[in-house]
Amino acid sequence: QGQLVESGGGLVQAGGSLRLSCAASGSIFSVNNMGWYRQIPGKQREVVALMTSGGTTNYADSVKGRFTISRDNAKNTVDLQMNSLKPEDTANYYCYARIYNVRWINYWGQGTQVTVSS
Q1: Whole-angstrom Cα distance, residue 87 to residue 15?
Q2: 112 near 7, Cβ under 8 Å?
Q3: CA quadruple 18, 54, 94, 23: dihedral sign
Q4: Residue 36 in contact with residue 96, Cβ under 8 Å?
Q5: CA gap 12, 17 in Å, rounded
Q6: How do strand 112-117 and strand 10-13 relate by DSSP bridges?
Q7: pLDDT per residue rounded down to tens, the chain (118 residues)
Q8: Spatial contact of 44 and 60, defined as CB atoms under 8 Å apart
Q9: Which residues pair with 107 in a beta bridge?
């Protein structure tokens, strides 16, 4: 079994920056995609940024040029640097990882709130 532990998030003014971090731990043989999703109450969870183990990235159009995902494969960690934050970035952010132990399983962090004030 694996688990994801997030840190970061909080309250920031529009135009500011925040950094989210996530570490996968537990019984892990391999990690495929890692990244971040976000969700606003009443809406579907949406992808923010993903990175494969090979370094290929995928960003939501709304965050391109403002957010940067990074990953340390040796430590099984993934970070999200968020710059030029906008009020519409306000959401609960979830770390995601696809982890192989005896089989591939999608894991989620507990979520961390990001609030951007105007």
Answers
A1: 9
A2: yes
A3: negative
A4: yes
A5: 7
A6: parallel
A7: 789 999 999 999 999 999 999 999 988 889 999 999 999 999 999 999 999 999 999 999 999 999 999 999 999 999 999 999 999 999 999 999 999 988 999 999 999 999 999 9
A8: no
A9: 97
Q: What percentage of the chain's residues is helix, strand, coil (to nearest 5)?
A: 5, 60, 35
Q: Encoding tokens for residue 8?
A: 């970061």
The tokens describing 87, both together, are: 């009020």
Amino acid at 89: D
Q: How far is CA 24 from the centre of its chain?
A: 12
* Token duo for residue 22: 């996530």
